[in-house]
Amino acid sequence: MVFDRELNRFVCEDEDPESNTLHQPLLKRNRTLSSRPLAIVGTKVSYIESLDYEINENDLFKQDWRSKSKVEVLQYVFSKWLLAFLVGLLTGVIATLINLAVENIAGYKLLVVVKYIDQEMYVY
Questions:
Q1: How far is CA 26 from CA 48, 63, 88, in A?
Q2: Count of CA atoms in the C-beta half-sphere (13 A) of 24
Q3: The overall pTM is greater than 0.90
Q4: In this structure, what are the phi and psi dihedrals at residue 4, rounded to the nearest 5 degrees?
Q5: Per-residue pLDDT tens for 83-93?
Q6: What is the mean pLDDT of residues 65-91?
């Protein structure tokens, strides 16, 4: 048995790595960069954790993902970006409406205060 660094597992020497698609990586990693970046936390050196909340990476998901065509993959990626854009757009529209409501309420308040001052209906 030999440890294959690309597949990150032990393989038999007579086994063809291309024949078992279940253990093939989805993406080829760039081997020039460190796959485990280090950070100095206090006095200890620790690995940096990624907070990319992706779906579970299990063998069934990987096999299903490899069976998709390029068009299906592009549709999936496009729909993710479209959903992110729509969430951002909706957030911006709601923030604009809240800002307009606050400005209008402050404007009405100013008009009422000015009216009371003009009528000298204020308390000393």
A1: 22, 9, 29
A2: 14
A3: no
A4: -95, 115
A5: 999 999 999 99
A6: 93
Amino acid at 81: W
Residue 17 contacts residue 5 (beta carbons within 8 Å): no
d(CA 60, CA 115): 71
Measured in whole angstroms, how far is the alpha carbon of residue 11 from the centre of its chain?
A: 34
- Among 33, 27, 30, 28, which Cα is nearest to 54's? 27
Parallel/antiparallel/unpaired status of strands 44-47 and 38-41? antiparallel
Question: Which position has the token pair 């993902």?
Answer: 65
CA-atom Rg of the chain in angstroms: 30
C-alpha to C-alpha distance for 48 and 31, rounded to whole angstroms: 18
Structure tokens that stand for 113 in this block:
């205060």
